[in-house]
Automatic annotation (TrEMBL):
InterPro entries: Smr_dom (IPR002625), Smr_dom_sf (IPR036063). Residues 4-79 form the Smr domain. Pfam families: Smr (PF01713). PROSITE patterns: SMR. It comes from Leptospira soteropolitanensis. This is Smr/MutS family protein.
């Protein structure tokens, strides 16, 4: 699982990095991505969730907050073709 660190970044920098790395994960055929946004005031978390909800190829993984290992992270499922299929397209 790929991890995207946007913690301690400014809002606009975090948005650009999140968008770029999610698209890279999609093209690499990743299945899940963990977005580390930290806890703080929840601004980066809200931005990450809003972005994921606007993308047709991403889905938030709902987990019970009682059992979540890291409250400063959001896990996203990438609804994409397999790595083999993407590699054939890249060739």
């Amino acid at each position: 699982m790929r991890t995207i660190y946007i913690r301690k970044l400014r809002f606009e920098e975090a948005r650009i990095k999140l968008e770029r790395e999610l698209h890279e994960a999609f093209m690499d055929g990743e299945s899940y991505v963990e977005i580390l946004h930290g806890i703080g005031e929840g601004i980066l978390k809200r931005m990450a969730i809003d972005y994921v909800e606007t993308c047709g190829f991403l889905k938030l993984v709902e987990t019970d907050p009682m059992f979540r290992s890291n409250p400063g992270a959001t896990i996203v499922e990438i609804l994409a073709p397999s790595k083999e299929y993407i590699n054939r397209l890249k060739s």
